[in-house]
Q: What sequence folds into this?
């Protein structure tokens, strides 16, 4: 199956029903995106498909064959929003165990690309699909606001 | 270049280990690990291969010619900040530049990397990482610094005493000479390891106690490059997905694996003591195969546990006296004489750890050896368990410790359950390729090793003036130590972790705590972030609040009167109350509650503020927390652990429970095991007590006071007491 991941072409020997997450992790060998629940409950597997956040653990890879798939690796390399989000994450020392943070950052990137100055409520609403068992939520929220400010200054 | 082993240095190791005890530097002549990007395993410690220019003055530090300082970390990084914390200690005494610091997980080798709080065992837990490493890592840093200074003095022909070190630069002011650590590494490697070092005094600290030090793992954890067990990729590796019995204690009778074996990607199906495993080329194929297995189970010997019946049974057990674990005075007699008595009973559910990274482990068995890749929390236990399974000596079991995607106690199991399971799969397969066992979320949540279900029954008596006369507390639950290698800690004949914290720390003249240990259940139980304090603190601190109310006294004043011999407890209680503006009016529908708990030698008081709506729904608005953890090493990590501990505890208090019906766990994933999400997270205001005492842990101690503070706040707002957890979303 032909896929476009992080602006690169892949030809992977996978069943179209395989979730995008496992095609990316086990076959494209990009492991920055994490497995947390397998049923779109925790957000650890969040990727972007044509710029929109998806839960890759329940997205059949066959359904995104013609679309632009972006993982944390690709967003790190090419998304100005993601880079601002990551800088804010570093500024606030957000991660503890860190396992959920790729998904958090991909969700935060999607939020800031839709809403340049999100309120606390906007952030709560958008980010509540991403679980962090270390409960780094306060710092995530602070970092999203910080990233929004730095993007506004840079614009 | 091949270095010659310095026999003097090795002799020093033996002497220091034998005489200096916990202060040993653990000196050894190690391997050039970075060169091969492999972590040295046991038995490799005496390797003579050294990279040119490398300076490796002990078990904990390696300085490369390129001027990087690698700190070898013996404690699993599971989020609590062990890598950053231990690196801080080395950087401090070494006078390194924080930017040149890297960290690397230590190999499994208890002779060098034992937890000094655990004795001869390597492992992480009980919030001990900082406490047991505080002197050890500082001494390692100071020794390396001294050797660098001596090397510079010799090269420059100047007295040692005239050399200064700051931010990674070694200087001699008189001659204007300067060098970085990398430039001096080769010469320093030739120096003798000093037998004595002088540590800095606190006013000289550059890093310890300073805010905003960047976490050493933060960059890798924001760009997806941090490697967890889940991310291990090795040549020819297979993935295994397991099928566990539907009830604890059920056994496989027969298996029809035909459909599974026919699936594309499936390589093998094996039976293991804990069920079945399907091996495949990738996770998805293995899971498809697992789901296609048709297994007949023998449930005749299995637990048919029902949570409702369990509670009733525990209540009946509490009608009879248990094993006395704490006795002062004559509590029962005093209760008879009391002007007023108060009774309460509490029920606590089983809890899953539900770390974001479900349990997993990579195992490769080769001829006469085994290699493991795992976010490993108890390396020595896991080494021994796997060695026994494979009939190897423990030193032949090499463990590569990786970052763990959370643990909260789950990755450290004295029965080595999931590590052993992965090894059993590899053994049963008869294959020598690496095998990555991956539990699904459902495997993880239904796989047991829960915080045990507990029941408490308390009585207390007050005199005419409202003074606390007597306290009795009866506790019923399973032991996490009984029947495990931890049984040796049950020196008094009972599991101390079942009762730790009960009725503490108050000065009570008449108190009895007793315990019924339920030992006929097959549900596996385990420590869960803050262990016994998860339930004892709730019972003790909400009951204390109820007694204050019965006495007509303010809950803070009531506690103060019982803490006159406990200055550190009293201090955090007062600090939290003061910062929360205790006693001021919060307004309609709002309430404030306090709780105080010492756990793992750290003292924490929390004030919770809640708002309750007319329909009973409520929000947790703010937590004001005061912590005394001795000398604060990394304030930012302490803030993070306090906030995170509050969130983790609030998650359990509001929504978490594992329940059983006809022996089956009723929860399976995050849709029915409700964990805290961002919209539920309160503001957390943390106040750290300045202290020069030795540091104690911060990973767990924020957890215990949260639920009782919350319940006490809900009482203040509504007049309703909560005797069963979780609270749910309304009162």
A:
């Amino acid at each position: 199956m032909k896929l476009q991941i992080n602006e690169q072409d892949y030809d992977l020997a996978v069943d179209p029903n395989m979730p995008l997450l496992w095609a990316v992790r086990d076959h494209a060998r990009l492991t920055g995106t994490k497995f947390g629940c397998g049923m779109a409950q925790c957000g650890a597997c969040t990727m972007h498909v044509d710029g929109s956040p998806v839960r890759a653990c329940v997205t059949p890879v066959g359904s995104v064959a013609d679309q632009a798939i972006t993982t944390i690796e690709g967003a790190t390399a090419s998304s100005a929003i993601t880079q601002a989000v990551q800088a804010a994450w570093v500024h606030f020392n957000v991660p503890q165990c860190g396992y959920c943070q790729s998904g958090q950052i991909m969700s935060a990137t999607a939020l800031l690309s839709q809403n340049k100055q999100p309120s606390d409520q906007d952030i709560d609403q958008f980010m509540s699909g991403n679980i962090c068992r270390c409960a780094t939520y306060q710092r995530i929220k602070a970092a999203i606001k910080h990233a929004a400010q730095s993007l506004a200054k840079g614009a | 270049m091949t270095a010659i082993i310095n026999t003097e240095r090795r002799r020093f190791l033996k002497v220091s280990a034998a005489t200096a005890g916990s202060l040993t530097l653990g000196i050894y002549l190690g391997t050039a690990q970075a060169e091969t990007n492999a972590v040295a395993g046991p038995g490799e410690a005496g390797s003579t291969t050294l990279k040119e220019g490398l300076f490796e003055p002990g078990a904990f530090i390696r300085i490369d010619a390129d001027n990087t300082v690698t700190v070898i970390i013996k404690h699993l990084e599971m989020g609590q900040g062990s890598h950053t914390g231990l690196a801080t200690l080395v950087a401090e005494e070494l006078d390194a530049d924080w930017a040149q610091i890297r960290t690397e997980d230590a190999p499994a080798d208890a002779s060098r990397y034992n937890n000094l709080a655990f004795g001869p065992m390597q492992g992480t837990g009980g919030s001990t990482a900082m406490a047991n490493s505080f002197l050890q890592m500082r001494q390692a840093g100071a020794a390396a610094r001294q050797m660098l200074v001596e090397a510079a003095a010799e090269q420059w022909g100047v007295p040692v005493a005239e050399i200064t070190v700051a931010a990674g630069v070694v200087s001699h002011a008189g001659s204007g000479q300067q060098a970085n650590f990398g430039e001096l590494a080769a010469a320093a490697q030739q120096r003798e390891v000093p037998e004595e070092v002088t540590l800095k005094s606190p006013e000289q600290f550059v890093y310890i106690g300073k805010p905003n030090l960047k976490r050493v793992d933060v960059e890798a954890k924001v760009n997806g490059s941090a490697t967890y067990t889940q991310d291990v990729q090795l040549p020819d590796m297979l993935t295994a997905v397991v099928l566990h019995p539907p009830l604890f204690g059920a056994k496989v009778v027969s298996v029809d694996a035909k459909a599974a074996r026919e699936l594309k990607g499936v390589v093998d199906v094996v039976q293991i003591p804990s069920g079945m495993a399907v091996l495949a080329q990738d996770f998805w194929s293995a899971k498809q195969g697992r789901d296609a297995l048709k297994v007949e189970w023998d449930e005749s010997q299995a637990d048919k546990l029902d949570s409702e019946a369990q509670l009733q049974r525990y209540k009946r057990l509490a009608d009879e006296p248990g094993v006395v674990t704490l006795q002062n005075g004559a509590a029962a007699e005093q209760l008879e004489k009391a002007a007023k008595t108060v009774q309460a009973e509490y029920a606590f559910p089983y809890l899953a750890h539900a770390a974001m990274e479900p349990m997993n482990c990579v195992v490769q068995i080769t001829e006469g050896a085994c290699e493991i890749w795992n976010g490993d929390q108890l390396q020595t236990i896991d080494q021994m368990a796997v060695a026994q399974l494979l009939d190897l000596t423990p030193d032949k079991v090499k463990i590569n410790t990786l970052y763990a995607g959370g643990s909260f106690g789950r990755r450290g199991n004295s029965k080595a359950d999931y590590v052993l399971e992965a090894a059993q799969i590899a053994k049963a397969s008869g294959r020598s390729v690496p095998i990555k066992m991956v539990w699904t979320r459902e495997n993880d949540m239904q796989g047991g090793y829960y915080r045990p279900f507990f029941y408490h029954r308390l009585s207390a008596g007050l005199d005419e003036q409202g003074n606390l006369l007597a306290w009795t507390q009866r506790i019923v639950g399973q032991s996490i130590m009984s029947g495990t290698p931890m049984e040796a800690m049950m020196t008094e004949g009972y599991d101390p972790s079942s009762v730790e914290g009960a009725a503490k720390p108050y000065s009570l003249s008449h108190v009895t705590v007793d315990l019924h240990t339920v030992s006929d259940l097959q549900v596996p139980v385990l420590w869960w972030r803050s262990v016994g304090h998860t339930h004892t603190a709730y019972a003790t601190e909400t009951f204390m609040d109820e007694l204050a109310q019965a006495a007509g006294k303010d809950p803070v004043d009531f506690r103060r009167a019982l803490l006159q011999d406990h200055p550190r407890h009293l201090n955090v209680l007062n600090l939290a109350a003061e910062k929360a503006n205790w006693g001021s009016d919060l307004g309609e529908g709002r309430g404030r509650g306090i709780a105080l708990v010492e756990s793992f030698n750290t003292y924490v008081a929390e004030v919770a503020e809640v708002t309750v709506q007319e329909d009973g729904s409520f929000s947790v608005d703010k937590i004001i927390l005061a912590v005394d953890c001795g000398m604060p090493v990394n304030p930012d990590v302490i803030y993070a652990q306090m906030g995170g501990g509050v969130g983790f505890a609030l998650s359990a208090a509001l929504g978490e429970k594992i329940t059983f019906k006809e022996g089956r766990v009723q929860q399976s994933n995050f849709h029915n095991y409700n964990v805290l999400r961002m919209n539920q997270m309160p503001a957390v205001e943390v106040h750290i007590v300045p202290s020069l005492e030795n540091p104690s842990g911060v990973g767990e101690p924020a957890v215990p006071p949260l639920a009782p503070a919350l319940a006490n706040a809900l009482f203040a707002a509504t007049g309703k007491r909560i005797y069963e957890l979780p609270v749910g979303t309304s009162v």
The longest strand of chain A covers residues 2-5. Residues 137-154 of chain A form the longest helix (18 residues). The two ends of chain A are 39 Å apart (CA to CA). Chain A touches chain B through 57 residues (CB under 8 Å).
